[in-house]
């Protein structure tokens, strides 16, 4: 299979600046590197169009069937800037590695020069391009439906567990108290230090992005903090961390000593509890309930969701029962959580395998490894 630079068949055009204040809601979707981010009354591409992430989520590929207004965090390709079937090219761009290595210091980005130099398969005839695109539309749709089914299972199991927490913790509680009255010491902010070390012998530096969906720490995001800096921010078993800034405000993480020495970052707030009054696991379970999230949302109306401070967390109300009853509730919920996490982990593994299957299908079809005229209903 002969390869040629992308620039031989398509040119990436820069998007245009369009702040939220200047948008006039309409029928045209506004696309950035992360996908659709609103609408506008006019577009800046023909229909259909391909959108490629330039900044932030760089290298991502989106299909805009009705055309789009592409903002300046992305590139656009349409019929004016390509000599091939756009739907075929859309699949080609998903096959190649547009991410590569970021060319920018600071905000990750994809330079147009780098993208234009990416090698892609030499296009077959237009008729064959359309056959390949049609085949992939059908087969990828089947894979996508399977992925969506697993994602629904993940969501529904999470909802069921949240409802169980609500019923077990909030329902039976005769009283509630403010979080700050359960603390052994005032809520504390983490270290305002750059995440630039990976010394395994130093304390781990925990950030919000380090916490996986199953509540464990991601090994691939490991960074550390020099011991002399980390000392003030060292975590103890049962410390509960709250996210205070960004889109994940309200997210919590219960630290366990068997994860090894660790300190916490500045976008997190630490709660250390009086264990004669409350079990940390009890509060951690409550922070997964609908009642907890309703309080976060209500407080965020009068605050800024990008900055939920220690005072606001301290004033959140927690249902309260005696420690002996807390212990029984924690045992029941821990057993249910184990089952829920097991189901969700299996579903996530299946999603990962299906995504790999989709990529393999695209590669095989685009590179001619399978005959798309006969390979209908490929097993997924």
From TrEMBL:
UniProt keyword list: DNA-binding, Restriction system
Start and end residues of each Type I restriction modification DNA specificity domain: 4-137
Any one of the GO BP annotations: DNA restriction-modification system
Domain of life of the organism encoding this protein: Bacteria
Molecular function as annotated in GO: DNA binding
Pfam families, A to Z: Methylase_S
Recorded family membership: Belongs to the type-I restriction system S methylase family.
Designated name of the protein: Type I restriction enzyme, S subunit
């Amino acid at each position: 299979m002969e390869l040629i630079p992308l620039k031989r068949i398509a040119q990436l055009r820069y998007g245009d600046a369009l702040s939220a204040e200047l948008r006039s809601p309409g029928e045209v979707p506004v696309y950035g590197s992360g996908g659709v981010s609103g609408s506008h009354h006019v577009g800046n591409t023909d229909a259909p169009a391909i959108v490629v992430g330039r900044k932030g989520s760089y290298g991502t590929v989106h299909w805009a069937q009705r055309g789009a207004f592409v903002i300046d965090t992305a590139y656009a390709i349409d019929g004016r800037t390509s000599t091939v079937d756009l739907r075929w090219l859309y699949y080609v761009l998903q096959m190649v590695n547009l991410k590569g290595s970021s060319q920018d210091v600071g905000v990750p980005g994809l330079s147009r020069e780098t993208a234009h130099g990416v090698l892609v398969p030499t296009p077959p005839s237009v008729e064959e391009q359309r056959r390949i695109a049609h085949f992939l539309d059908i087969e990828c749709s089947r894979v996508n439906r399977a992925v969506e089914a697993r994602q629904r299972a993940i969501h529904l199991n999470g909802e069921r567990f949240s409802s169980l927490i609500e019923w077990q913790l909030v329902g039976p509680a005769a009283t509630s108290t403010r979080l700050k009255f359960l603390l052994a010491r005032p809520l504390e902010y983490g270290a305002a230090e750059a995440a630039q070390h990976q010394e395994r012998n130093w304390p781990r530096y925990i950030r919000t992005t380090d916490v996986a969906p199953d509540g464990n720490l991601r090994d691939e995001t490991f960074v550390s903090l020099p011991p002399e800096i980390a000392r003030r921010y060292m975590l103890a078993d049962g410390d509960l961390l709250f996210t205070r800034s960004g889109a994940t405000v309200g997210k919590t993480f219960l630290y366990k000593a068997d994860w090894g020495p660790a300190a916490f970052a500045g976008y997190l707030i630490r709660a250390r509890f009086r264990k004669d009054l409350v079990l940390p696991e009890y509060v951690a379970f409550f922070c997964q309930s609908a009642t907890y999230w309703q309080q976060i949302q209500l407080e965020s109306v009068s605050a800024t969701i990008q900055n939920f401070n220690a005072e606001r967390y301290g004033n959140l109300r927690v249902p309260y029962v005696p420690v002996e009853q807390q212990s029984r509730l924690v045992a029941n919920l821990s057993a249910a959580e184990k089952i829920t996490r097991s189901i969700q982990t299996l579903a996530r593994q299946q999603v990962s395998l299906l995504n790999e299957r989709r990529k393999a299908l695209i590669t095989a079809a685009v590179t001619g490894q399978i005959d798309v005229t006969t390979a209908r209903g490929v097993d997924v």
